[in-house]
Design brief:
The structure is a single chain. The protein is mostly helical. It has one domain: CDP-alcohol phosphotransferase transmembrane (TM) domain (Four Helix Bundle (Hemerythrin (Met), subunit A), Up-down Bundle), CATH 1.20.120.1760. The chain is built from 13 helices and no strands. The chain has helices spanning about 5-10, 15-25, 25-45, 50-60, 65-70, 75-100, 105-130, 135, 145-165, 180-190, 195-205, 210-245, 250-255. Helix 6 packs antiparallel against helix 7 and helix 6 (about 75-100) runs antiparallel to helix 11 (about 195-205).
């Protein structure tokens, strides 16, 4: 299918743009703008968005292999692969909209690729920390365990947010109008700053302090997890209170679905 950048941008309509700016500002400003430019190239060469998703997955899985095999200055290649995998993740969405070829399998693979990407990233940085005492700094020898803990904390936070329909940073209802407040943009930039991890890896790699990159990723994951709990538990208490009078906020978020409580 032939298309140009204008077709790609038009497929990403105003509501989608506002939502992404409010929930993933860094991704929108960096990766989405690039994806508008290169999606037409992929549209001419890939038969489906699933192929792009699988390419993104392959790139993500290659990240830990770089430091594992001791490639010199591994942080450069890890950062490039991290950037490329994220960019392809944006391209597959653009391609699906342009081709109007969304599918259940594609959505599943996209979610799976996201999980594998972040796990591979944390593990990659952990391996690099353990590969060099100077770059490993205060956590040398513990890089891989810290990377795995970071991945677990990150996945737990995401699973819990998905359970209650919480989109981080929190979205107070449906976006109305065509403007976004300064506070919402600030929260979005803060929440999506981790998307810029390739630049963090390069800076810390040149500084020869990859332990700082690993600890920053761990701190971000712990912060996101803590923020989620601060949002989730008041929401669940409100759910229980409203359930007593037959008006559950979960039911309001997911109309037509019953909310069940297991003992």
């Amino acid at each position: 299918m032939q298309c140009d950048s204008r077709d790609v941008m038009e497929s990403f309509d105003g509501d989608k743009r506002l939502l992404e700016m409010r929930t993933n500002l860094c991704g929108y400003l960096v990766f989405r703008q690039l994806s508008f430019l290169i999606t037409p190239l992929f549209a001419a060469r890939f038969s489906s968005p699933t192929h792009v998703t699988l390419a993104s997955l392959s790139v993500a899985l290659a990240m830990p292999l770089v430091p594992w095999f001791g490639i010199p200055s591994a942080f450069w290649l890890v950062a490039i692969l991290s950037f490329l995998s994220q960019l392809l993740d944006f391209v597959d969405g653009d391609l699906a909209r342009v081709q109007r070829s969304t599918s259940a399998i594609g959505k599943y693979l996209d979610s799976f690729t996201g999980i594998m990407y972040w796990t591979a990233l944390y593990v990659s940085v952990g391996i690099m920390v353990d590969a060099d005492p100077r770059s490993g700094g205060i956590v040398y020898g513990y890089g891989l365990p810290i990377g795995l803990v970071t991945a677990i904390v990150d996945m737990l936070g995401k699973c819990m947010r998905q359970y209650v329909g919480l989109n981080f940073p929190s979205q107070e209802g449906v976006i109305l109008g065509r403007s976004i407040g300064t506070k919402a943009l600030f929260l979005s930039a803060l929440a999506s700053a981790i998307k810029l991890n390739p630049f963090l890896i390069v800076v810390c790699g040149l500084w020869q302090r990859l332990d700082a990159a690993l600890l920053a990723l761990l701190a971000f994951s712990l912060g996101a997890f803590t923020y989620s709990q601060l949002k989730i538990f008041p929401f669940l208490r409100l759910t229980d209170a409203k359930a007593k009078v037959g008006a559950s906020p979960l039911a309001e978020r997911f109309p037509g679905q019953e909310t069940t409580v297991s003992a």
